[in-house]
Design a protein that fits this description.
This protein is α/β, with parallel strands linked by helices. It folds into two domains: about 200 residues, Isopropylmalate Dehydrogenase (3-Layer(aba) Sandwich), CATH 3.40.718.10; about 140 residues, Isopropylmalate Dehydrogenase (3-Layer(aba) Sandwich). Strand 11 and strand 12 form a beta hairpin. Helix 1 packs across helix 10, helix 1 packs parallel to helix 12 and helix 6 crosses helix 7. The longest helix has 16 residues. Nicotinamide-adenine-dinucleotide binds next to helix 1 and helix 4. Keywords: Amino-acid biosynthesis, Branched-chain amino acid biosynthesis, Cytoplasm, Leucine biosynthesis, Magnesium, Manganese, Metal-binding, NAD, Oxidoreductase. Pathway: Amino-acid biosynthesis; L-leucine biosynthesis; L-leucine from 3-methyl-2-oxobutanoate: step 3/4.
Length: about 375
């Protein structure tokens, strides 16, 4: 089983190193090959997603991704900015279905910024459409306004769009996921204002006819943002577009205690997947050895379950994470009085130790750097 390991920038390199360490103690024939991506690739090859990295990603069974981006690249032409690497991978590989589970582990109830009773036992799944919407709609750009409030002024524009097949396939993913869980889907839109999202809502209703056993609720995105902090446990599966999903998933991360706890899986229709934490490269803490690696380690568990047909290994990683939290290990983002503050590496070591204690075997692993 071949894994493309793309650490990227900032804390990306630190957290991916811990996830790789965890994968290495599993009894699985994993072949990992590393390549530069984002700002790191721009420095080496003049492009955030060099051909070699893209080809490696395409040929792998799964991709383990860290994060890309740094403020110092914000003035580059857009196609050269690090963020284009993750957008390019999603587009080139057709990774349209993004799973972002927000689970509040028992030990982290107090780490959330919400009252404990609101988040205790929380287990919701945000399904974000990942290859359409205003992120990829054309045309976009800058021009001189010919009409509007200020004709003759400079203006910028983007295009929000969704086609029927794009909405249908993500709706099917959401209803099928709900069947494995609480059988409730909340479709989040802005149908009261945007044509794109009235269409989204209409198509989701049509697809729902095939899933009479699943409850469907519609909610405007502004209300959803409010309900997520008012009564997060009233949700089961949330399905939404690319931009709303980006925003709501960062909001949901704080229900779990920290954005450093939110893993993700981005899948195409062949179940090939890219696995990454939902957060970014965190330039403010990069290089300090304090980033929380658990979202990345939990993303590696999702990779084993969804793309590598190793669900037992995924279960073992998730149990190991629970046991290190139960033992009191905390990176600063989830630390509270009475627990043990550790750095990125110590947290990874603790997960490895928990796995070994659970009877880990020998791993056949090769790492090559390209
Ligand atoms: N998929 C990706 O690669 C991805 C995702 C989001 C943002 N970005 C990029 O990352 C850069 C920084 O963006 P940002 O600051 O808006 O978002 P961010 O997610 O990188 O950081 C937001 C805040 O959360 C904290 N944080 C994030 N991950 C953490 C972790 N694992 N442990 C502890 N604290 C953590 C950071 O320190 C920061 O205070 C930008 O260039 C942005 O474009 C990349
Ligand atoms: C870095 C950026 C392109 C990306 C997004 O907006 O999708 C990030 O915020 C995410 O959530 O993965
Ligand atoms: Mg985001």
């Amino acid at each position: 089983m071949k894994i493309a390991v793309l650490p990227g920038d900032g804390i990306g390199t630190e957290i991916v190193a811990e996830a790789v360490k965890v994968l290495q103690v599993l009894d699985l024939p994993l072949e990992m090959e590393q390549a530069p991506v984002g700002g790191a690739a721009y420095e080496l090859h003049g492009h955030p997603l060099p051909e070699g990295t893209l080809n490696l990603a395409k040929s792998a069974d799964a991709i383990l991704f860290g994060a890309v981006g740094d403020w110092k690249y914000d003035k580059l032409d857009r196609p050269l900015r690090p963020e284009q690497a993750i957008l390019g991978l999603r587009k080139h590989l057709g990774l349209f279905a993004n799973f972002r589970p927000a689970i509040c582990y028992e030990q982290l109830v107090g780490a959330s910024s919400l009252k404990p009773e609101l988040v205790a036992g929380l287990d919701i799944l945000i399904i974000r459409e990942l290859t359409g919407d205003i992120y990829f709609g054309q045309p976009r750009g800058r021009r001189t306004a010919v009409d509007g409030l200020f004709p003759g002024a400079d203006e910028a524009f983007d295009t929000m769009r969704y086609s029927r097949p794009e909405i249908e396939r993500i709706a099917h993913v959401a209803f099928q996921a709900a069947r494995q869980r609480g059988r409730k889907v909340t479709s989040v839109d802005k149908a009261n204002v945007l044509e794109t999202f009235q269409f989204w809502k209409d198509v989701v209703i049509e697809v729902h006819a095939q899933y009479p056993d699943v409850e469907l609720q519609h909610m405007y995105v502004d209300n959803a943002a409010m309900q997520l902090v008012k009564s997060p446990k009233s949700f089961d599966v949330v399905v939404t577009g690319n931009m709303f999903g980006d925003i709501l998933s960062d909001e949901a991360s704080m229900l779990t205690g920290s954005i450093g706890m939110l893993p993700s899986a981005s899948l195409n229709d062949r179940k090939q997947g890219l696995y990454e934490p939902s957060h970014g490269s965190a330039p403010d803490i990069a290089g300090k050895g304090i980033a929380n690696p658990l979202a990345t380690i939990l993303s590696a568990a999702m990779m084993l379950r969804f793309s590598l047909q190793a669900p037992e290994a995924a279960d073992r990683i998730e149990s190991a994470v629970k046991s290190v939290l139960a033992a009191g290990y905390r990176t600063p983002d989830i630390w509270s009085e009475g627990t043990q503050k550790v750095g990125t590496r110590e947290m990874g070591d603790a997960v490895v130790a928990a796995l070994m204690g659970n009877g880990a075997g020998k791993t056949i692993t090769t790492i090559t750097k390209s």
